[in-house]
Write a structure and sequence with these properties.
The N terminus is likely disordered. The chain has about 180 residues and is α+β, with helices and mostly antiparallel strands. Helices cover about 25% and strands about 30% of the residues. The protein has a single domain, classed as tt1808, chain A (Alpha-Beta Complex), CATH 3.90.1570. It is built from 4 helices and 9 strands. The longest helix is centred in the C-terminal third of the chain and has 17 residues. A hairpin with a 6-residue loop joins strand 1 and strand 2.
Length: about 180
């Protein structure tokens, strides 16, 4: 880890989904609140949610690992991707869509962009906002009921390369030097 921290470390806390001890900071507290919300209010099971995912991205010869906060699987398909970031949601839309086109070999149907207080739900294919607010995050039953009508369009190698460059530009090139959520390789 960097000797300079991007955020104030408040100690340690227990991860709601995994039970592991992790670093406590303001951003992680909001992530934990989101995890509880997904389980307790949106009725996803802990087993269907994967958190703290490292996603490898590249732009030419440059490579890095970036963090994706949550992906949710229903019937063996990732249906929802949740990307947390402090501040404005507008600047988080495009990198979140890029993540949703790289983390699986297909387009994830629902992309949630949130700062832990506000949220926008994006249609993964079109990128259009289809809901606003945390209550608009699709629940487990809503996703399950729509499952037969969801599209899981394959992502071509060319598209994946372009999305990786976009994500690299937003998450790595534009990152604060002390940000430990990314790892330049």
């Amino acid at each position: 880890m960097n000797s300079l921290k991007h955020h104030l470390v408040l100690g340690e806390l227990k991860d709601f989904l995994t039970g592991k001890t992790i670093e406590d900071n303001h951003d992680e507290r909001l992530r934990q609140k989101l995890a509880r919300f997904l389980v307790e209010e949106k009725k996803y099971t802990k087993e269907t949610i994967t958190s703290h995912i490292k996603l490898r991205v590249s732009a030419g010869e440059k490579k890095a690992n970036v963090k994706v906060d949550f992906k949710i699987r229903i019937l063996d398909k990732t249906c929802v991707l949740v990307k947390y970031g402090p501040g404005s949601l507008v600047t988080r839309r495009r990198p979140s869509l890029a993540s949703s086109r790289l983390i699986e070999s297909y387009q994830i149907p629902f992309v949630v962009v949130t700062n832990g207080i506000e949220a926008e739900i994006l249609d993964g294919v079109s990128g259009k906002i289809i809901g606003k607010g945390l209550q608009a995050v699709p629940s487990r039953s809503e996703v399950t009921n729509q499952f037969d009508h969801l599209e899981f369009k394959p992502i071509s190698a060319k598209r994946a390369e372009l999305e990786s460059r976009i994500l690299y530009a937003y998450e790595v090139d534009d990152a604060c030097p002390c940000d430990d959520n990314i790892c330049r390789l």
